[in-house]
């Protein structure tokens, strides 16, 4: 999704994350999985739609 938005190859996004991981984490970057992504996505959609 991010790669499509920026019109770059997914490998570019992966390399960027690998190269700048420490800085990204300091700025709040995190990988959401399972129930956490479902909950956060639902909250985002709820805020967007209502």
Question: Which key terms come to mind for this protein?
Answer:
74% helix, 50 residues, mainly alpha, 4 helices
General description of the model:
This protein is 74% helix and 0% strand. With 50 residues, it is mostly helical. It has one domain. The radius of gyration is 13 Å and the shape is extended. The chain starts with a helix and ends with a helix. The mean pLDDT is 89.
> Ends: how far apart?
24 Å
Strand content: under 5%
How would you sum up the major sheet? none
From the helix content, strand content and strand pairing, which structural class follows? mainly alpha
Question: What's the rounded overall pLDDT mean?
Answer: 89
Roughly how many Å is the radius of gyration?
13 Å
Q: Low-confidence spans: pLDDT under 50, at least 5 residues? A: none
* Run of helices and strands: HHHH
Shape assignment = extended
**How many beta-strand runs?**
0
Number of domains: 1
Number of helices: 4
Helix fraction?
A: over 70%
């Amino acid at each position: 999704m991010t790669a499509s938005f920026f019109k770059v190859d997914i490998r570019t996004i992966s390399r960027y994350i690998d190269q700048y991981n420490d800085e990204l984490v300091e700025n709040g970057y995190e990988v959401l999985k399972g129930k956490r992504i479902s909950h956060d996505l639902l909250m985002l959609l709820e805020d967007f739609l209502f």
